[in-house]
Design a protein that fits this description.
Layout: E1 10-13, E2 18-24, E3 27-34, E4 45-47, H1 50-62, H2 69-85, E5 110-115, E6 118-127, E7 131-136, E8 141-142, E9 148-149, E10 154-158, E11 163-164, H3 165-176
Antiparallel strand pairs: 1-2, 1-4, 2-3, 5-6, 5-11, 6-7, 7-10, 8-9
Helix pairs in contact: 1-2
């Protein structure tokens, strides 16, 4: 593990008006989330809470298949930032294909979305019986004429658009094994 949360970590709005996390020892983590998309007021300084730490470890545990430890930490911290500070979103499901099998995801689960010819990998940050707030782990994608979803971008979608990547991996293992 590259980083372990401690009581010195602090969230704040940086000079570029984006959410930042002071990790101590002259280390800063910059999220891609501008202040206008956040519920917190500038200036602000809030500690990395016990709930943040729990989310961080939940996300890290589910991100085991992500290529590098630093990318896992980056995804987990961005997930915590979205869960804690992102403004509520309306679902934007029309960009994604409906799935035949309904999937009810769990927090931190890696799921897939089909956007036409492109398949996206997402991490579930928050879930309810009908919709989930997700963070993109895929490269930037243009979803429509006016909507781009960057890596670590947040989007809310109906659960009938999601499919489980974990179930797909288990099926592949059964076929090979």
């Amino acid at each position: 593990m590259l980083l372990q949360p401690n009581d010195q970590w602090r969230w704040f709005i940086g000079d570029e008006r984006c959410l930042m996390l002071d990790l101590g020892d002259d280390m800063l983590f910059a999220t891609p989330y501008p202040h206008k998309n956040l519920i917190c007021q500038a200036p602000m300084s809030q500690g990395f809470s016990v709930e943040d730490t729990g989310l961080f470890y939940t996300f890290l545990d589910r991100l085991g298949c992500v290529a590098t430890p630093s990318r896992r930490v980056q995804a987990a911290l961005n997930g915590v930032a979205v869960a804690r500070f992102y403004k509520p979103l309306m679902p934007q499901s029309w960009f994604f294909e409906q799935q035949a099998d309904y999937h009810q995801p769990q927090q931190g689960e890696l799921i897939g979305l089909n956007a036409g010819q492109r398949r996206l990998t997402m991490m579930v940050v928050e879930t309810s019986p009908s919709v989930s707030l997700c963070v993109s782990l895929s490269a930037d994608i243009q979803l429509g004429d006016s909507k781009q979803l960057p890596v670590f971008g947040a989007i809310k979608v109906m659960n009938d658009r999601l499919f489980s990547l974990e179930a797909e991996q288990e099926d592949e293992i059964r076929r090979v094994g």
